[in-house]
Design brief:
Layout (H helix, E strand, L loop, with lengths): L6 H4 L2 H12 L11 H6 L6 H14 L5 H8 L6 H5 L6 H15 L4 H13 L3 H14 L8 H9 L13 E2 L7 E5 L4 H5 L1 H13 L2 E4 L9 H5 L3 H20 L5 E4 L2 H7 L2 H4 L7 H10 E3 H8 L10 E4 L3 H6 L5 H8 L3 E4 L13 H4 L1 H16 L5 E4 L2 H8 L6 E3 H8 L6 H4 L1
Helix pairs in contact: 2-7, 4-7, 8-10, 12-24, 18-20
Length: 426
Protein backbone atom coordinates (compact mmCIF):
# COMPACT_ATOMS: atom_id res chain seq x y z
CA UNK A 1 0.00 0.00 0.00
CA UNK A 2 1.37 3.41 -0.94
CA UNK A 3 1.48 6.04 1.78
CA UNK A 4 1.86 9.83 1.67
CA UNK A 5 3.30 10.82 5.02
CA UNK A 6 5.50 13.93 5.02
CA UNK A 7 9.11 13.80 6.16
CA UNK A 8 8.10 15.77 9.23
CA UNK A 9 5.44 13.19 10.06
CA UNK A 10 7.86 10.31 9.55
CA UNK A 11 10.19 11.88 12.12
CA UNK A 12 7.62 10.73 14.69
CA UNK A 13 8.52 7.11 15.59
CA UNK A 14 4.85 6.18 15.98
CA UNK A 15 4.02 7.42 12.48
CA UNK A 16 7.12 5.73 11.07
CA UNK A 17 5.92 2.46 12.63
CA UNK A 18 2.44 2.93 11.15
CA UNK A 19 3.94 3.70 7.73
CA UNK A 20 5.86 0.42 7.74
CA UNK A 21 2.76 -1.54 8.72
CA UNK A 22 0.61 0.13 6.07
CA UNK A 23 3.17 -0.49 3.34
CA UNK A 24 3.06 -4.22 4.06
CA UNK A 25 -0.64 -4.40 3.18
CA UNK A 26 -1.29 -5.58 -0.41
CA UNK A 27 -5.11 -5.18 -0.37
CA UNK A 28 -5.63 -8.92 -0.89
CA UNK A 29 -8.67 -9.12 1.38
CA UNK A 30 -7.84 -12.52 2.86
CA UNK A 31 -8.48 -10.92 6.26
CA UNK A 32 -12.14 -10.24 5.50
CA UNK A 33 -13.06 -13.93 5.53
CA UNK A 34 -11.87 -14.39 9.13
CA UNK A 35 -12.91 -11.03 10.62
CA UNK A 36 -15.86 -11.56 13.00
CA UNK A 37 -17.41 -8.14 12.44
CA UNK A 38 -17.20 -8.45 8.66
CA UNK A 39 -18.66 -11.97 8.82
CA UNK A 40 -21.58 -10.60 10.85
CA UNK A 41 -22.13 -7.19 9.24
CA UNK A 42 -20.78 -7.55 5.70
CA UNK A 43 -19.50 -3.94 5.68
CA UNK A 44 -16.05 -3.37 4.20
CA UNK A 45 -15.36 -0.67 6.80
CA UNK A 46 -15.94 -3.31 9.47
CA UNK A 47 -13.17 -5.47 8.04
CA UNK A 48 -9.43 -5.14 8.71
CA UNK A 49 -8.80 -3.98 5.14
CA UNK A 50 -11.47 -1.30 5.43
CA UNK A 51 -10.20 -0.13 8.79
CA UNK A 52 -6.64 0.00 7.45
CA UNK A 53 -7.75 2.43 4.73
CA UNK A 54 -9.62 4.48 7.32
CA UNK A 55 -6.67 4.57 9.74
CA UNK A 56 -4.27 5.46 6.92
CA UNK A 57 -6.36 8.51 6.03
CA UNK A 58 -6.69 9.63 9.65
CA UNK A 59 -2.96 9.44 10.28
CA UNK A 60 -1.88 10.92 6.94
CA UNK A 61 -4.24 13.87 7.31
CA UNK A 62 -3.53 14.12 11.04
CA UNK A 63 -7.17 14.91 11.64
CA UNK A 64 -9.88 14.06 14.10
CA UNK A 65 -12.13 11.20 13.00
CA UNK A 66 -15.80 11.63 12.25
CA UNK A 67 -18.35 9.94 14.50
CA UNK A 68 -19.01 7.35 11.76
CA UNK A 69 -15.30 6.54 11.49
CA UNK A 70 -15.11 6.09 15.27
CA UNK A 71 -17.98 3.59 15.07
CA UNK A 72 -15.99 1.36 12.70
CA UNK A 73 -12.79 1.58 14.77
CA UNK A 74 -14.73 0.87 17.97
CA UNK A 75 -16.31 -2.21 16.40
CA UNK A 76 -12.91 -3.87 16.04
CA UNK A 77 -12.54 -6.63 18.63
CA UNK A 78 -8.73 -6.75 18.41
CA UNK A 79 -9.18 -10.50 18.06
CA UNK A 80 -6.19 -10.49 15.65
CA UNK A 81 -7.64 -13.27 13.50
CA UNK A 82 -6.64 -11.09 10.55
CA UNK A 83 -3.00 -11.36 11.58
CA UNK A 84 -3.17 -15.15 11.53
CA UNK A 85 -4.71 -15.02 8.05
CA UNK A 86 -2.59 -12.25 6.51
CA UNK A 87 0.01 -13.58 4.03
CA UNK A 88 1.95 -10.30 4.13
CA UNK A 89 2.61 -10.08 7.85
CA UNK A 90 0.67 -6.86 8.46
CA UNK A 91 0.90 -6.04 12.17
CA UNK A 92 -2.70 -4.92 12.50
CA UNK A 93 -2.49 -5.04 16.31
CA UNK A 94 -0.01 -2.18 16.55
CA UNK A 95 -1.85 -0.20 13.87
CA UNK A 96 -5.29 -0.36 15.49
CA UNK A 97 -3.73 0.38 18.90
CA UNK A 98 -2.29 3.55 17.44
CA UNK A 99 -5.65 4.41 15.87
CA UNK A 100 -7.38 4.07 19.24
CA UNK A 101 -4.84 6.37 20.86
CA UNK A 102 -5.38 8.87 18.02
CA UNK A 103 -9.15 8.73 18.55
CA UNK A 104 -8.72 9.25 22.31
CA UNK A 105 -6.55 12.32 21.69
CA UNK A 106 -8.58 14.00 18.93
CA UNK A 107 -12.23 12.96 19.25
CA UNK A 108 -14.76 14.09 21.88
CA UNK A 109 -17.12 11.23 22.60
CA UNK A 110 -20.72 11.68 23.73
CA UNK A 111 -21.10 12.14 27.48
CA UNK A 112 -22.61 8.68 28.09
CA UNK A 113 -19.80 6.97 26.18
CA UNK A 114 -17.16 8.93 28.09
CA UNK A 115 -18.81 8.04 31.38
CA UNK A 116 -18.94 4.33 30.54
CA UNK A 117 -15.28 4.24 29.50
CA UNK A 118 -14.11 6.16 32.54
CA UNK A 119 -16.02 3.86 34.86
CA UNK A 120 -14.57 0.77 33.23
CA UNK A 121 -11.03 2.15 33.27
CA UNK A 122 -11.34 3.16 36.92
CA UNK A 123 -13.08 0.09 38.33
CA UNK A 124 -12.03 -3.07 36.47
CA UNK A 125 -8.23 -2.86 36.97
CA UNK A 126 -8.64 -2.44 40.74
CA UNK A 127 -9.81 -5.67 42.43
CA UNK A 128 -10.94 -3.97 45.63
CA UNK A 129 -12.94 -1.31 43.81
CA UNK A 130 -14.35 -3.89 41.39
CA UNK A 131 -15.54 -6.06 44.26
CA UNK A 132 -17.16 -3.05 45.94
CA UNK A 133 -18.80 -2.05 42.65
CA UNK A 134 -20.35 -5.51 42.24
CA UNK A 135 -21.74 -5.33 45.78
CA UNK A 136 -23.14 -1.86 45.05
CA UNK A 137 -24.72 -3.21 41.88
CA UNK A 138 -26.55 -5.84 43.91
CA UNK A 139 -28.00 -3.09 46.12
CA UNK A 140 -28.91 -1.00 43.08
CA UNK A 141 -30.79 -3.64 41.11
CA UNK A 142 -34.22 -2.77 42.58
CA UNK A 143 -33.73 0.80 41.27
CA UNK A 144 -32.56 -0.21 37.79
CA UNK A 145 -35.39 1.52 35.91
CA UNK A 146 -34.53 4.85 37.53
CA UNK A 147 -30.90 4.80 36.37
CA UNK A 148 -29.37 6.35 33.24
CA UNK A 149 -28.88 3.94 30.35
CA UNK A 150 -25.11 3.76 30.79
CA UNK A 151 -25.45 2.69 34.43
CA UNK A 152 -28.17 0.17 33.56
CA UNK A 153 -25.78 -1.45 31.08
CA UNK A 154 -23.09 -1.80 33.73
CA UNK A 155 -25.62 -3.08 36.24
CA UNK A 156 -26.86 -5.76 33.84
CA UNK A 157 -23.29 -6.94 33.22
CA UNK A 158 -22.34 -7.19 36.90
CA UNK A 159 -22.29 -10.68 38.43
CA UNK A 160 -25.20 -11.48 40.72
CA UNK A 161 -22.79 -12.79 43.35
CA UNK A 162 -19.05 -13.20 43.80
CA UNK A 163 -16.91 -15.98 45.26
CA UNK A 164 -15.66 -15.44 48.78
CA UNK A 165 -12.54 -13.28 48.74
CA UNK A 166 -9.44 -15.47 48.97
CA UNK A 167 -5.92 -14.06 49.02
CA UNK A 168 -3.30 -16.12 47.24
CA UNK A 169 0.03 -16.81 48.98
CA UNK A 170 2.87 -14.56 47.87
CA UNK A 171 5.28 -17.53 47.84
CA UNK A 172 4.75 -21.28 47.39
CA UNK A 173 7.48 -23.92 47.44
CA UNK A 174 7.82 -26.71 44.89
CA UNK A 175 6.72 -30.19 45.87
CA UNK A 176 9.90 -32.22 45.57
CA UNK A 177 13.05 -31.02 43.78
CA UNK A 178 12.78 -27.51 42.36
CA UNK A 179 12.82 -27.41 38.56
CA UNK A 180 11.82 -23.77 37.97
CA UNK A 181 11.28 -20.53 39.82
CA UNK A 182 8.39 -18.57 38.35
CA UNK A 183 6.34 -15.46 39.05
CA UNK A 184 2.57 -15.59 38.62
CA UNK A 185 0.51 -12.59 37.53
CA UNK A 186 -2.55 -12.70 39.79
CA UNK A 187 -4.53 -10.41 37.48
CA UNK A 188 -7.30 -7.99 38.37
CA UNK A 189 -10.78 -9.07 37.25
CA UNK A 190 -9.86 -12.76 37.38
CA UNK A 191 -8.90 -12.80 41.05
CA UNK A 192 -12.32 -11.33 41.90
CA UNK A 193 -14.53 -13.39 39.57
CA UNK A 194 -12.66 -16.69 39.64
CA UNK A 195 -9.95 -16.96 42.34
CA UNK A 196 -9.97 -20.74 41.86
CA UNK A 197 -8.03 -20.30 38.60
CA UNK A 198 -4.97 -18.88 40.37
CA UNK A 199 -5.29 -21.48 43.13
CA UNK A 200 -5.37 -24.32 40.58
CA UNK A 201 -2.42 -22.78 38.73
CA UNK A 202 -0.30 -22.59 41.88
CA UNK A 203 -1.10 -26.19 42.87
CA UNK A 204 -0.35 -27.41 39.34
CA UNK A 205 3.00 -25.61 39.14
CA UNK A 206 4.11 -26.62 42.65
CA UNK A 207 3.17 -30.25 41.96
CA UNK A 208 5.43 -30.17 38.89
CA UNK A 209 8.47 -28.72 40.65
CA UNK A 210 8.04 -24.93 40.59
CA UNK A 211 8.67 -22.36 43.27
CA UNK A 212 6.01 -19.71 42.72
CA UNK A 213 6.26 -16.03 43.63
CA UNK A 214 3.16 -13.80 43.44
CA UNK A 215 4.45 -10.26 43.94
CA UNK A 216 1.58 -8.10 45.25
CA UNK A 217 2.89 -5.01 43.44
CA UNK A 218 2.28 -6.62 40.03
CA UNK A 219 -1.17 -5.28 39.19
CA UNK A 220 -3.30 -4.92 36.09
CA UNK A 221 -1.29 -5.57 32.93
CA UNK A 222 -2.68 -2.39 31.30
CA UNK A 223 -4.54 -4.10 28.47
CA UNK A 224 -7.91 -2.69 29.47
CA UNK A 225 -6.91 0.97 29.28
CA UNK A 226 -4.63 0.26 26.32
CA UNK A 227 -7.59 -0.91 24.23
CA UNK A 228 -9.55 2.13 25.35
CA UNK A 229 -6.82 4.30 23.81
CA UNK A 230 -5.48 5.59 27.15
CA UNK A 231 -1.81 5.11 26.40
CA UNK A 232 -0.40 7.02 29.36
CA UNK A 233 -2.26 4.77 31.81
CA UNK A 234 -1.27 1.65 29.88
CA UNK A 235 2.39 2.62 29.91
CA UNK A 236 2.21 3.41 33.62
CA UNK A 237 0.89 -0.09 34.30
CA UNK A 238 3.59 -1.62 32.11
CA UNK A 239 6.39 0.27 33.86
CA UNK A 240 5.06 -0.68 37.32
CA UNK A 241 4.99 -4.36 36.41
CA UNK A 242 8.39 -4.24 34.73
CA UNK A 243 9.87 -2.72 37.90
CA UNK A 244 8.16 -5.31 40.11
CA UNK A 245 9.22 -8.34 38.09
CA UNK A 246 12.75 -6.97 37.55
CA UNK A 247 13.16 -6.77 41.33
CA UNK A 248 11.99 -10.39 41.69
CA UNK A 249 14.29 -11.43 38.84
CA UNK A 250 17.29 -9.80 40.49
CA UNK A 251 16.42 -11.35 43.85
CA UNK A 252 16.74 -15.05 43.10
CA UNK A 253 16.21 -15.29 39.35
CA UNK A 254 13.17 -16.23 37.28
CA UNK A 255 12.65 -18.90 34.66
CA UNK A 256 9.29 -17.52 33.57
CA UNK A 257 6.51 -15.06 34.33
CA UNK A 258 3.43 -17.26 34.20
CA UNK A 259 0.18 -15.74 32.97
CA UNK A 260 -3.09 -17.66 33.01
CA UNK A 261 -5.28 -15.02 31.35
CA UNK A 262 -4.29 -14.96 27.71
CA UNK A 263 -5.42 -11.38 27.14
CA UNK A 264 -2.91 -10.32 29.78
CA UNK A 265 -0.27 -12.59 28.26
CA UNK A 266 -0.54 -10.93 24.87
CA UNK A 267 -0.14 -7.56 26.54
CA UNK A 268 2.87 -8.45 28.69
CA UNK A 269 4.61 -10.06 25.73
CA UNK A 270 4.26 -6.68 23.98
CA UNK A 271 5.85 -4.61 26.77
CA UNK A 272 9.15 -4.65 24.91
CA UNK A 273 7.54 -2.98 21.91
CA UNK A 274 5.47 -0.55 23.95
CA UNK A 275 8.47 0.72 25.92
CA UNK A 276 11.06 0.47 23.13
CA UNK A 277 11.52 4.25 22.98
CA UNK A 278 11.93 4.71 26.74
CA UNK A 279 15.67 4.69 27.47
CA UNK A 280 15.07 3.81 31.12
CA UNK A 281 12.76 0.87 30.44
CA UNK A 282 13.46 -0.43 26.93
CA UNK A 283 15.98 -3.12 27.89
CA UNK A 284 14.15 -4.11 31.10
CA UNK A 285 10.81 -4.36 29.30
CA UNK A 286 12.28 -6.50 26.53
CA UNK A 287 13.71 -8.83 29.17
CA UNK A 288 10.34 -9.12 30.93
CA UNK A 289 8.48 -9.77 27.68
CA UNK A 290 10.93 -12.54 26.86
CA UNK A 291 10.15 -14.21 30.20
CA UNK A 292 6.34 -14.03 29.82
CA UNK A 293 4.73 -17.46 29.25
CA UNK A 294 1.19 -18.73 29.14
CA UNK A 295 0.53 -21.47 31.69
CA UNK A 296 0.13 -23.97 28.82
CA UNK A 297 3.62 -23.14 27.52
CA UNK A 298 5.17 -23.70 30.94
CA UNK A 299 3.32 -26.97 31.51
CA UNK A 300 4.29 -28.20 28.05
CA UNK A 301 7.94 -27.59 29.01
CA UNK A 302 7.57 -29.29 32.39
CA UNK A 303 5.66 -32.31 31.11
CA UNK A 304 2.34 -33.30 32.64
CA UNK A 305 2.19 -36.06 35.28
CA UNK A 306 -1.43 -37.30 35.33
CA UNK A 307 -2.59 -39.21 38.40
CA UNK A 308 -6.20 -39.89 37.43
CA UNK A 309 -8.23 -40.17 34.25
CA UNK A 310 -11.70 -38.67 34.19
CA UNK A 311 -14.36 -39.74 31.73
CA UNK A 312 -15.04 -36.22 30.48
CA UNK A 313 -15.54 -34.77 27.00
CA UNK A 314 -13.99 -31.31 26.65
CA UNK A 315 -14.78 -28.68 24.04
CA UNK A 316 -11.64 -26.57 23.82
CA UNK A 317 -12.35 -22.90 23.15
CA UNK A 318 -9.24 -21.24 21.74
CA UNK A 319 -9.14 -17.66 23.06
CA UNK A 320 -8.24 -15.18 20.32
CA UNK A 321 -5.47 -13.65 22.42
CA UNK A 322 -3.94 -17.11 22.75
CA UNK A 323 -4.26 -18.51 19.22
CA UNK A 324 -3.93 -15.24 17.26
CA UNK A 325 -2.14 -12.93 19.69
CA UNK A 326 0.43 -15.41 21.04
CA UNK A 327 0.27 -18.11 18.33
CA UNK A 328 -0.33 -20.79 20.97
CA UNK A 329 -2.54 -23.38 19.31
CA UNK A 330 -1.54 -26.96 20.15
CA UNK A 331 -0.19 -26.88 23.70
CA UNK A 332 -3.50 -26.57 25.61
CA UNK A 333 -5.18 -29.32 23.57
CA UNK A 334 -2.16 -31.62 23.83
CA UNK A 335 -2.02 -31.14 27.61
CA UNK A 336 -5.74 -31.87 28.02
CA UNK A 337 -5.39 -35.00 25.89
CA UNK A 338 -2.34 -36.11 27.90
CA UNK A 339 -4.43 -35.66 31.04
CA UNK A 340 -6.88 -38.21 29.69
CA UNK A 341 -9.73 -36.00 28.53
CA UNK A 342 -11.54 -36.41 25.21
CA UNK A 343 -10.78 -33.11 23.52
CA UNK A 344 -12.67 -31.58 20.60
CA UNK A 345 -12.02 -28.38 18.66
CA UNK A 346 -14.99 -26.02 18.43
CA UNK A 347 -16.22 -25.45 14.84
CA UNK A 348 -15.36 -21.95 13.55
CA UNK A 349 -12.76 -21.85 16.28
CA UNK A 350 -10.98 -18.91 14.63
CA UNK A 351 -13.94 -16.58 15.28
CA UNK A 352 -14.10 -14.52 18.48
CA UNK A 353 -16.67 -15.26 21.19
CA UNK A 354 -17.36 -11.53 21.56
CA UNK A 355 -15.75 -10.96 24.95
CA UNK A 356 -12.61 -9.03 23.89
CA UNK A 357 -11.96 -7.27 27.19
CA UNK A 358 -14.54 -4.51 27.62
CA UNK A 359 -16.01 -5.07 24.15
CA UNK A 360 -19.00 -7.03 25.47
CA UNK A 361 -19.94 -3.96 27.56
CA UNK A 362 -19.28 -1.35 24.88
CA UNK A 363 -20.65 -3.28 21.88
CA UNK A 364 -23.27 -5.58 23.47
CA UNK A 365 -25.28 -6.34 20.31
CA UNK A 366 -22.30 -7.58 18.28
CA UNK A 367 -20.82 -9.33 21.32
CA UNK A 368 -24.05 -11.20 22.00
CA UNK A 369 -24.41 -12.28 18.37
CA UNK A 370 -20.86 -13.65 18.39
CA UNK A 371 -21.40 -15.38 21.72
CA UNK A 372 -24.58 -17.07 20.53
CA UNK A 373 -22.82 -18.24 17.37
CA UNK A 374 -19.95 -19.62 19.42
CA UNK A 375 -22.28 -21.32 21.90
CA UNK A 376 -24.23 -23.00 19.08
CA UNK A 377 -20.97 -24.42 17.73
CA UNK A 378 -19.96 -25.62 21.20
CA UNK A 379 -23.31 -27.27 21.86
CA UNK A 380 -23.09 -29.14 18.55
CA UNK A 381 -20.26 -31.14 20.15
CA UNK A 382 -22.39 -32.14 23.18
CA UNK A 383 -19.44 -31.75 25.59
CA UNK A 384 -19.43 -32.23 29.35
CA UNK A 385 -17.37 -29.09 29.85
CA UNK A 386 -15.86 -26.18 27.95
CA UNK A 387 -12.19 -25.38 28.60
CA UNK A 388 -10.63 -21.99 27.88
CA UNK A 389 -7.50 -20.07 28.80
CA UNK A 390 -8.95 -16.59 29.33
CA UNK A 391 -11.30 -15.30 32.04
CA UNK A 392 -13.09 -12.94 29.63
CA UNK A 393 -13.99 -15.79 27.30
CA UNK A 394 -15.08 -17.94 30.23
CA UNK A 395 -17.51 -15.33 31.57
CA UNK A 396 -18.80 -14.52 28.10
CA UNK A 397 -19.54 -18.15 27.23
CA UNK A 398 -21.01 -18.94 30.65
CA UNK A 399 -23.57 -16.21 30.04
CA UNK A 400 -24.93 -18.09 27.04
CA UNK A 401 -24.90 -21.76 27.98
CA UNK A 402 -25.57 -24.10 30.87
CA UNK A 403 -22.51 -26.20 29.99
CA UNK A 404 -19.83 -25.65 32.68
CA UNK A 405 -16.98 -23.41 31.51
CA UNK A 406 -13.65 -23.84 33.31
CA UNK A 407 -10.02 -22.89 32.86
CA UNK A 408 -7.60 -25.33 31.26
CA UNK A 409 -5.45 -25.11 34.40
CA UNK A 410 -8.37 -26.30 36.54
CA UNK A 411 -8.76 -29.46 34.45
CA UNK A 412 -5.01 -30.13 34.46
CA UNK A 413 -4.94 -29.62 38.23
CA UNK A 414 -7.81 -32.10 38.66
CA UNK A 415 -6.10 -34.73 36.52
CA UNK A 416 -2.85 -34.43 38.47
CA UNK A 417 -4.26 -34.73 41.96
CA UNK A 418 -6.15 -31.50 42.58
CA UNK A 419 -9.84 -31.02 43.41
CA UNK A 420 -12.65 -31.32 40.91
CA UNK A 421 -13.45 -27.86 39.43
CA UNK A 422 -16.31 -26.31 41.34
CA UNK A 423 -18.32 -25.47 38.24
CA UNK A 424 -18.39 -29.17 37.33
CA UNK A 425 -19.87 -29.94 40.74
CA UNK A 426 -22.52 -27.28 40.15
Amino acid sequence: MQTAFSLAQLADPAIAEADGILRNCVHCGFCTATCPTYVLLGDELDSPRGRIYLIKDLLEQDRAPTSEEVVHIDRCLSCLSCMTTCPSGVNYMHLVDQARAHVAETYERPVSDRLMRRLLAAVLPRPGLFRAAVRAAALGRPFRKLMPKVLRALLDAAPVRLPVKRDIATATKAEGPRRKRVALLAGCVQQVLAPQINEATVRLLARHGCDIVVPPDAGCCGALVHHLGEEDKALHAARRNVDTWTAVLEDGGLDAIVINASGCGTMVKDYGFMLRLDPTYAAKAARISALARDISEVMADLGLKPQARHDVTVAYHAACSLQHGQKIVNQPKALLAAAGYRVHDVPEGHLCCGSAGTYSLLQPDIATALRDRKVANIQSLRPDVVAAGNIGCMEQLAGGTGIPVVHVAELLDWATGGPKPGRLNA
